[in-house]
Amino acid sequence: MSQDQQQLPRYSGIATFMRCPYEESLEGIDIGLIGVPFDGGVTNRTGTRHGPREIRNQSSLMRSVNQSTDISPFELCKVADVGDALPESPFELERSHRSIQDFFEKVVEAGVLPISAGGDHSISLPILRALAKNSPIALVHFDAHCDTGGHYLGSKFHHGSPFRVAVEEGLIDPKKTIQIGIRGSVNHKDIWKFSHDSGMRVIYMDEFYELGIEGILSEVHSLIGNTPTYVTFDVDGLDPAFAVGTGTPEVGGFTTFEAIKLIRGLTGLHIVGGDVVEVSPPFDPSGATALVGATMMFELLCVTAESLAKRKDRV
Q1: Of 9-23, 45-59, 129-143, 171-185, where does mean pLDDT reach its minimum?
Q2: Beta partners for 22?
Q3: Whole-number Å distance between alpha carbons of 137 and 199
Q4: pTM, rounded to two decimals
Q5: pLDDT tops 80 at residue 7
Q6: Which residues have C-beta within 8 Å of that of residue 6, sequence separation ≥ 6?
């Protein structure tokens, strides 16, 4: 990104992620910022299909340097907004997932590392299908829910099940998966049994505060090591005081500052992609939740750009 674009008034121009250039060609791009406007996998309140557009708008408030970490992602890597993975058949969930997967396969084949804005959490599954074709990868998962549920109303493909299906399809290694922020009431006490039985590390909110941020990050690095890793951030992992605009809010989550510290603490991981999901603008007309989503996306971009730049230096 040129400095001139950063110096333009933030209310001007066409909204793109982080005010990056919009590129239809993937050639020469290191990191592609992608919208996935799909919410056909929600189990209750729809609206996250509008997330990418509003996150783009609010991301104009992001600047070029992370003053806390001193990371300048646009200097480390060529970053561009490469558009939306728009399903051709949005009324058909499995065909929509196939369309999303096709889009991301092109991104991966071009050597572009994807960071995405959803959309509901079911979009992580087709993205993982594109990223983990050859071998399973590790997962760092911030959320109020484990999203390893089973069939619901006749389908196993919904936003409460992507990581169960990902394990079943050999896309993620459950023993290198950590789920952070789990809480809330449930209808069945063993709803997340699959997470525990498969070997995932599940950190419920009570333990979150017992361990503290440093304790959690120590576990993340110990568990994952140098394994290629996908990072997924569901905004309902945050307390709804900070992210009211989401489909399945759960009281008692972490704060935005705690979330930022957790993402920054992923420095050193071999990050191969990530997403921020479940921003639902219709439930927050103020735009504050979309600003939170844009901020988490920027923080993820920073640690990812640093990770990628270090790998490129070693080549």
Answers
A1: 9-23
A2: 81
A3: 14
A4: 0.96
A5: no
A6: 19, 63, 64
Q: How many other β-carbons are positioned within 10 Å of the β-carbon of residue 179?
A: 24
- Report whether 255 contacts 208 (CB < 8 A): no
Q: To the nearest 5 percent, what fractions of the chain are helix, strand and coil? A: 40, 20, 40
Instruction: Evaluate whether 126 touches 95 at the Cβ level (below 8 Å).
Output: no
DSSP strand E in the chain: where? 31-36, 79-84, 113-118, 137-142, 172-182, 201-204, 228-234, 270-277
User: Please, what is the average pLDDT of the chain?
Assistant: 94
Q: How many domains does the chain have?
A: 1
Mind listing the pLDDT tens digit for each residue in 276-304?
A: 999 999 999 999 999 999 999 999 999 99
Beta pairing class for 228-234 and 113-118: unpaired
Amino acid identity at 306: E
- At residue 60, does pLDDT exceed 80? yes
Place of tokens 């896309």: 171
Q: Which domain holds residue 240?
A: 3-314
Q: What is the CATH number of the domain that holds 257?
A: 3.40.800.10
Q: Which residue has the higher pLDDT, 260 or 6?
A: 260
Nearest to 74 by CA among 2, 181, 158, 182: 2
What does the block give as tokens for 178? Answer: 């950590």
Q: What is the DSSP letter of 283?
A: G
